[in-house]
Write a structure and sequence with these properties.
This is UPF0371 protein H9627_04840. InterPro entries: DUF1846 (IPR014999), DUF1846_C (IPR048441), DUF1846_N (IPR048496). Belongs to the UPF0371 family. It holds the Pfam family DUF1846. It comes from Corynebacterium gallinarum. The protein starts with 6 loop residues before the first helix and ends in a 13-residue tail after the last strand. It is elongated. The longest helix has 25 residues. It is 45% helix and 14% strand. Strand 11 and strand 12 form a beta hairpin. The chain is of the alpha/beta class. The protein has a 6-stranded parallel β-sheet, sandwiched between helices. It contains 19 helices and 14 strands. Helix 9 runs parallel beside helix 12.
Length: 495
């Protein structure tokens, strides 16, 4: 895979830049981390060379000087919101993130529950759960008029109603499971609390996307717009930056909308603001670490198409209208890409047309496309997985990695004892059977050795995947899209 992003250069420059901003602020710095602090999978897809742990690696340079504060929106608990990339709830992800940060040696003691209302029983139960686990919880209330009524917000009737977090380090990184978790409001509330206590503090933002020094409609920035289409976020030219400096910089609507509050609040608390625009308050040097623009453009275009298919599947699965997919279709048009750019899609659809049954196709790293069809023994994803491993290992396509005789007992177990209606093997069952065979079969062992080379490959299936196959591909690092249809008609489907 070609690299478009220099990870080491980024880690070095970004750490230095954060320290420079700390010196500029002078006192305590609240650093809002936009996007995912850990496992930023979107960034690793659109910036080949960016690893999911890049931000953690950057912060490790400052580990002894910072602490991490995690926020979660109480309304997301009511909605049981999940991280689609990991298929876990925001509630569980908060606990997972705390574990990850602590294992890496970061001080992480506090969670802030934002937009809390008295009748939010899910949030209250989660607070009790956190406190039983020894986590300190601060409760932040819904503030009427946020973010426009600055006078009310910056008062005892606004931020003054929020519980203050007693931090111990001068660099406080504020992160969350996902967007809309109240990170900015938490930072501002803390600055208000500091001011009331005579503590000098300031704010800066680390937002990976959109990348401020790339054009508004650069595919990497458009990929961010596609990723947040469900939030109705859009990329915009920062009007404050244009007015202050006569320079175009890319921002997005929510930062632009909330900037007047931030600037007004800083002026109310300290007499002046160090920032004249949302771009000023950022500490993002991601654009400076792009070393091959065309590689990143193509990766971003592929991501936009993936997001389009994902939206179609979500709309079909949840019986929603086509609002999100229509927004992403517009983004695809801006980026000059289409579903035809995902080359394995046509091959999967052709095979389905030929066989009259679901099919799948995978694009290997060297450009080869391998397909899988549905049979009496295997589902199309399982067949494709075995075929791809044979191709990578240089095993004759006619060789059966798993003999029909070895598959039959598994099918009998599924249908006669486990109550399954589908006797075909799924991807997890195929991998387990292959692992067992590896003890006596050289071909099976060689095939298993190639699993690592599937990471980053693209797959398309002609039907919506079940949760098991979806999870296996996610764990293998395979990037999957599907046609928005089910293999069989049914009113009830297990999630």
């Amino acid at each position: 895979m070609r690299t478009g992003f220099d990870r080491d250069l980024y880690v070095r420059m970004q750490s230095q830049h954060i320290n420079e901003r700390r010196e500029q602020i002078g006192g305590k710095l609240y650093l809002e981390m936009g996007g995912k602090l850990f496992d930023d999978l979107h960034a690793s897809r659109v910036l080949p060379g960016f690893t999911p742990d890049n931000k953690i690696a950057m912060l490790e340079q400052l580990k002894d000087e910072l602490e991490i504060l995690v926020t979660i929106n109480g309304k997301d608990l009511q909605r049981n919101k999940t991280r689609a990339d990991l298929d876990i709830s925001y509630e569980d992800d908060v606990l997972r993130l705390i574990d990850v940060f602590r294992e890496a040696g970061f001080l992480t003691e506090h969670v802030v529950l934002t937009q809390l209302e008295d009748d939010n029983y899910q949030a209250i139960q989660f607070i009790q759960r956190l406190e039983r686990l020894g986590i300190k919880v601060a409760r932040h209330r819904v503030i009427p008029g946020y973010p426009t009524d600055a006078r009310r917000i910056v008062s005892e009737e606004g931020f003054g109603r929020n519980e203050y977090v007693e931090t111990t380090r001068n660099l406080v990184v504020v992160t969350a499971p996902g967007p809309g978790s109240g990170k900015l409001a938490t930072c501002l509330s803390q600055i208000y609390g500091d001011h009331q206590r005579g503590i000098s503090s300031g704010y800066a933002k680390f937002e990976t996307f959109p990348i401020w020094d790339l054009p508004l409609e650069h595919p990497v920035n458009l990929a961010y717009e596609a990723a947040t289409a469900d939030l109705d976020d859009i990329n915009v030219i920062d009007p404050f930056h244009l007015t202050a400096y006569g320079e175009k910089a890319t921002s997005y609507n929510r930062d632009v909308e909330v900037f007047p509050l931030l600037k007004t609040m800083l002026e109310m608390l300290s007499g002046s603001s160090p920032y004249q625009s949302p771009t000023d308050m950022g500490v993002n040097l991601v654009g400076s670490a792009i070393i091959d623009d065309e590689v990143c453009r193509e990766a971003a275009r592929q991501e936009i198409v993936r997001r389009y298919f994902k939206a179609l599947v979500d709309e079909r699965r949840d019986e929603l209208d086509d609002t999100v997919s229509s927004r992403i279709a517009i983004v695809m048009s801006k980026a000059g890409c289409s579903v035809e750019d995902r080359t394995m899609v046509a091959r999967a659809l052709e095979l389905e047309s030929e066989t009259g049954a679901p099919a799948s196709a995978i694009l290997l790293d060297d450009g080869r496309i391998v397909t899988g069809k549905t049979s009496a023994l295997l589902g199309c994803s399982a067949a494709m997985l075995l075929n791809a491993l044979k191709e990578l290992a240089g095993i004759d396509p006619s060789v059966d990695l798993l003999s029909p005789e070895s598959i039959e007992p598994i099918q009998t177990l599924k249908t006669e004892h486990l109550g399954s209606r589908n006797p075909r093997l799924h991807t997890d069952e195929v991998l387990i059977a292959l692992s067992v065979s590896a003890a006596t079969s050289d071909n099976a062992r060689r095939a298993l050795d190639e699993l690592k080379n599937l990471r980053g490959c693209d797959v398309h299936t002609t039907t919506i995947l079940g949760s098991v196959d979806e999870g296996i591909f996610r764990n293998l690092g395979v990037l999957v899209t599907s046609e928005p249809k089910y293999q069989r008609k049914a009113l009830y489907r297990k999630r």
